């Protein structure tokens, strides 16, 4: 069985098209042997209503609506806990990765425990590009990831990934971050525990204008990466104590 997790924040209009495409495609490929898990969080639009309508119409859909902001990573962790599939995957709600592209990743799971889509490998195709500044930040982020974690991947942040259930269960309780660096920590923990990770070229389309403020986001991204690296160092106890103090305030 295949589980597809879709985290969502204010993606109501985009999610309708995404769900229509994913339900039709995976029904044709998998019959009843798949589920789509929708995790809206901190939504101020009609996303929760869209989710409720679709879950009432399609038995292979289930959801958990979370009112507070828990970040994309937090939503995915909730989805991991609900997933029943032997293979668990996730994609963005905006449909930047089409169902055909996710299916290509899923088909490789088994020979590899983890398969990730990449927008930066030879053979990748970006139908609609992000802005130049976003692409520059993305490449800079990737260089820092390679330096700090030794990860060889060209694109840790693509929103399409697939895993064996066993691999996710092994690491999900050890994940500490839920925002910008979630994918990095997830891949780092999986690789450190010996899971084979395949990076594949994908077709991807930038679907929405980002509201991300890069002036504040870039320092937060860097700080998140440094924190993850320090938490996996001899300074772990000191950093963990600092994090606990911040959360209790």
Reading off the top of the CATH hierarchy, the class is best stated as Alpha Beta
Give me the strand/helix succession.
EHEHEHEHEEHEHHEEHH
Q: Any guess at the CATH architecture? A: Alpha-Beta Complex
Shape category: globular
Question: Unreliable runs, pLDDT <50, ≥5 residues?
Answer: 244-249
By oligomeric state, this entry counts as single chain
CATH fold-level label? Spore Coat Polysaccharide Biosynthesis Protein SpsA, Chain A
Number of alpha- plus pi-helical segments = 9
Mean pLDDT equals 89
Query: What is the spatial order of strands in the main beta sheet?
Result: 3-2-1-4-7-5-8
Summarize the structure.
This protein has 249 residues and is α/β, with parallel strands linked by helices.
Structure description:
The longest helix is centred in the N-terminal third of the chain and has 19 residues, at 12-30. This protein has one domain: Spore Coat Polysaccharide Biosynthesis Protein SpsA, Chain A (Alpha-Beta Complex), CATH 3.90.550.10. It has 249 residues and is an alpha/beta fold. 36% of the residues are buried. It has a 7-stranded mixed β-sheet, with helices on both faces. The protein has helices spanning 12-30, 47-57, 71-82, 99-108, 132-149, 165-171, 182-192, 214-231, 236-248; strands spanning 2-8, 34-40, 61-63, 87-90, 114-118, 125-128, 161-164, 197-201, 203-205.
């Amino acid at each position: 069985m295949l589980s597809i997790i879709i985290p969502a924040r204010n993606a109501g209009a985009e999610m309708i098209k995404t769900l229509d495409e994913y339900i039709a495609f995976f029904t044709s490929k998998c019959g009843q042997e798949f589920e789509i898990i929708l995790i809206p969080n901190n939504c101020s639009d009609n996303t929760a209503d869209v989710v409720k309508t679709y879950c009432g119409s399609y038995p292979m859909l289930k959801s958990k609506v979370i009112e507070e902001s828990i970040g994309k990573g937090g939503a995915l962790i909730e989805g991991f806990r609900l997933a029943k599939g032997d293979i668990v995957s996730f994609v963005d709600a905006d449909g930047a990765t089409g169902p055909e592209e996710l299916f290509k990743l899923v088909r490789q799971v088994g020979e590899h425990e983890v398969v990730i889509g990449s927008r930066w490998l030879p053979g990748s195709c970006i139908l609609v590009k992000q802005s130049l500044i976003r692409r520059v930040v993305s490449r800079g982020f990737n260089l820092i990831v390679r330096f700090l974690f030794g990860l060889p991947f060209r694109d840790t942040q693509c929103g399409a990934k697939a895993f064996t259930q066993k691999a996710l269960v092994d690491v999900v309780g050890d994940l500490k971050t839920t925002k910008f660096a979630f994918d990095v920590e997830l891949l780092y923990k999986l690789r450190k525990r010996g899971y084979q990770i395949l990076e594949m070229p994908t077709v991807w389309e930038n679907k929405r204008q980002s509201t991300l403020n890069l002036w504040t986001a870039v320092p937060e991204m860097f700080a998140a990466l440094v924190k993850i690296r320090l938490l996996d160092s001899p300074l772990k106890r000191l950093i963990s104590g600092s994090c606990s103090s911040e959360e209790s305030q």
